[in-house]
Design a protein that fits this description.
single chain, 124 residues, mainly alpha, 3 helical TM bundles of succinate and fumarate reductases
Length: 124
């Protein structure tokens, strides 16, 4: 009996379709948001505790590394939002074909890139 199973399972050599990349990025952005919400809630709690706490958070937010982290969290949020809207549209029955899925993935990447750049301008 001849097996038709793949012999090479090195994931670095397998070319994935664009829909797979957008799906993987959607999951990664969800994990980043899960961790990032804890950081942002901590900062919110500190800023609302007292006027001195607000000043401390404002001073920390001026640090370039913290700005980069904030931009990364906003980027994850924006990508996750746009990809989630795509999933809602697909749940309504639109874009379920292979061509529609590819087009939707391209739209998600383009819209997300524009929003992420705008968020970067806003943060910096």
């Amino acid at each position: 009996m001849k097996s038709q199973r793949p012999v090479n399972l090195d994931l670095r050599t397998i070319k994935l379709p664009i829909t797979a990349y957008t799906s993987i990025l959607h999951r990664i952005s969800g994990v980043i948001l899960f961790v990032g919400v804890a950081l942002m809630l901590f900062a919110l709690d500190a800023s609302l505790s007292s006027p001195e706490g607000f000043e401390q958070v404002r001073d920390v937010m001026g640090n370039p590394l913290v700005k980069l982290i904030t931009w990364g969290l906003l980027s994850a949020l924006l990508y996750h939002l746009v990809a989630g809207i795509r999933h809602l549209i697909m749940d309504s029955g639109h874009g379920e074909t292979l061509e529609g899925g590819k087009l939707g993935s391209k739209i998600v990447l383009i819209v997300s890139a524009v929003l992420i750049v705008l968020a970067g301008v806003w943060v910096w």
